[in-house]
Amino acid sequence: ADSIDNWIGKVGMTLATGVFSAVGGGAYLLPIALGVLGFRCFLRGGMDITRRSAAGFAVLLLFLSMLLALRLRGIPTLGSGWVQLGLAGGHIGGFLSELLVAYFAPVGAHIVVTAGLVLSLLIATPVSLVTIAQQIAEGAATLREWAQERWTQFRARSAEKPRKPKERAVKIIRAEPIVPAGEDVGEISPAEIVSAEMSREEAAGPEVQSERKKRRKSPRREELPEPMLLPEVVGGAGYILTDPVTLLGDPATVVERLSDEEIRAQAQILTQALANFGINGQVIQTHVGPVVTMYEFEPAPGVKVARIVNLDDDLALALKAISIRIVAPIPGKSVVGIEVPNPRREDVALKEIVLSEAYKASRSPLKLALGKDIFGTPIVADLRGMPHLLVAGATGSGKSVGLNTMILSILFAARPDEVKFLMIDPKMLELTMYEGIAHLWRPVITEPKAAARGLMLAVKEMERRYKLMAEHGARNIDAYNRFVAEAQGVPPPQPVDIPTEAEVVAGTEPAYLSEEDRLSVGETTAGPARKTPPTPLPYLVIVIDELADLMMVASKEVEDSIARLAQMARAAGIHLILATQRPSVDVLTGLIKANFPARIAFQVASKTDSRTILDQNGADQLLGRGDMLYLATGTGKLTRVHGAFVPDGDLKKVVDFVKAQGGPAYSEEAVTAETEGRGDSGDGDEMYEQAKEIVIGTGQASASFLQRRMRIGYPRAARMIEMME
């Protein structure tokens, strides 16, 4: 008897042979379907077979057998090996597949069979395509949320443990003092100065020079630059030799600067504070200045600069500083500058700036010794190139001291016949001490009404100068003065340089014919016929200490005069320095600001005031006591400057010395205007007669009518109406 190779025996072999012969490999679907059906029956307690599902299963079995017949030549069995002779899909599957290939070709047959499998599966089971799509979408959303959560946790762990950058040595740059501090110089006569210079030149040798390099931290008197010469303040051929060291003092105290260990520790704290906010980088260089220390922070790649700028208050808290200022980025460098106040502040003496090479190298008569920048470099500006300067700062910020240093800078550089001042001081405190110096164009003005008339006189002077320059074909005051020098038969003057010692001793310094000498021979300043050439025109610097007080009394007249001078007076040699402690829009109007490109801001109370004066923030973060931001003409970049300080005693000594050389010579027009201004400070009004004529001529008498007609303030118009009544 033949052996039966089947686990179920003869019955199993018979069933297997019949099913495999009919549908081939699709026979394996039958036990799977029966197992699923039994499991569902066990769970639900009954069979839920419908005609639809039964028909779908039968069609699924047929399409599965057709697919096997198309793709396979044989099918494995559990006991008898491979079913051969192309019966992978059974007789039924083989027949139907051959029929499909005959009509649809192999590719089309595969498409039909695949579509039939999908449709029959949907019919045989309760699953729909919509449900499948929804489940796939829900699964994708869940996977995406899980990935985002894991990424957020990873970022948080990375921020908590920032990767340390490669350590680099911090380069520390210190500013060397220009003059020794705390050293008493004493009074020196001109002869002693010359002999001391000669003895130093003879005694100096290679050994002395090398010792100077070794002792740079404590320089001696021999290291001082060659003393500057203060020109005589009266007209004439000679000068009085005076060393400014004898008039200006050193800083009152010697301040110990930060040590290298303190700077490195501060840089480490700064780096760690930034790392706590997720900003990696390192401090690569520091600049130790007299008031602040700048740390150059190099951020890691990918760090946005805006994130660093917004951390100024947080960094000030971490560094225990009063306030810090962030320069992001430093122009010309790929670093961010963080300015931190020094715990021990140094004073910048005016003598240091006057003796610096920057001041001595400038040949302008209007050079301003502002102070030192954060690197310790002296900052000397030229008022001629500005050509006007706007200064603002809160009370106690050093604004008045800054004005005094600017005035002294000009007094050290120019004679009275080269520079004149028109000083307006409504507070009657700061500029009145200059009353009586020879550089004054007219007496110091303290009354607001007289100030308005003084500015009108300056406008008339500007117009007069333009007429003179037009007559001689000169485009500016320098060209006009060169023409005058050539017409008088003297060499053209240099751009106001200090004369040589030989010129001083020999008295060969060229002298111009004064206005008084020309008038004594019957000459007038107008008319085509002249017996002698005209006199040169001096520069005129108008200094207003408190603009807000003037704008409160006569805003229209003051604003119009300032606007005209600012727009046109540069070529005529007239320059303005306006100072105010209230930089609001009603004081610094748009018409005034538009003609003052150069600005200096001392410490102000708010960011709004800083934007008013500088058009950007920063002045509210200054430290006071002369700390300023200087906006140069045409640059658009702010420079932090620590203003030069001059004590009241030194200021008085310089002013007394200038007064001792000679008094001012006011023009008759200026004296008359000053007298009228003082007389008008009472109950009278210089426009009262004009107002009375308008009322009589029009027959209308009201304060609002006079205000519109005469373009004056309402209180002034009401006061004149009361006087008429």
Give the N-to-C terminal Cα separation: 153 Å
Classified in CATH, the superfamily of the domain at 373-477 and 539-676 is P-loop containing nucleotide triphosphate hydrolases
* SS class: alpha/beta
Count of β-strands: 16
Please give the CATH class of the domain at 373-477 and 539-676: Alpha Beta
Write the CATH fold name of the domain at 373-477 and 539-676.
Rossmann fold
Could you list the spans in which at least 5 consecutive residues all have pLDDT below 50?
A: 180-241, 495-532, 675-683
What strand order characterises the main sheet?
Answer: 9-8-16-15-14-10-13-12-11
Shape: elongated
Main sheet characteristics: 9 strands, mixed
Query: Can you give the mean pLDDT?
Result: 76
Return the CATH architecture of the domain at 373-477 and 539-676. 3-Layer(aba) Sandwich
Radius of gyration: 47 Å
Helix content: 40-55%
Strand content: 5-15%
State the helix count: 25
SSE map:
Elements: H1 10-23, H2 29-44, H3 51-71, E1 75-76, E2 82-83, H4 90-124, H5 129-160, E3 171-174, H6 190-203, H7 206-214, H8 260-276, E4 281-288, E5 292-299, H9 305-309, H10 312-319, E6 325-327, E7 336-341, H11 350-354, H12 357-361, E8 367-373, E9 378-382, E10 389-392, H13 399-413, E11 419-424, H14 448-471, H15 477-487, H16 501-506, H17 515-520, E12 539-544, H18 547-568, E13 574-580, H19 590-593, E14 598-601, H20 607-614, E15 627-631, E16 638-643, H21 648-660, H22 668-679, H23 688-698, H24 703-710, H25 714-724
Helix pairs in contact: 1-4, 3-4, 8-10, 14-18, 14-22, 24-25
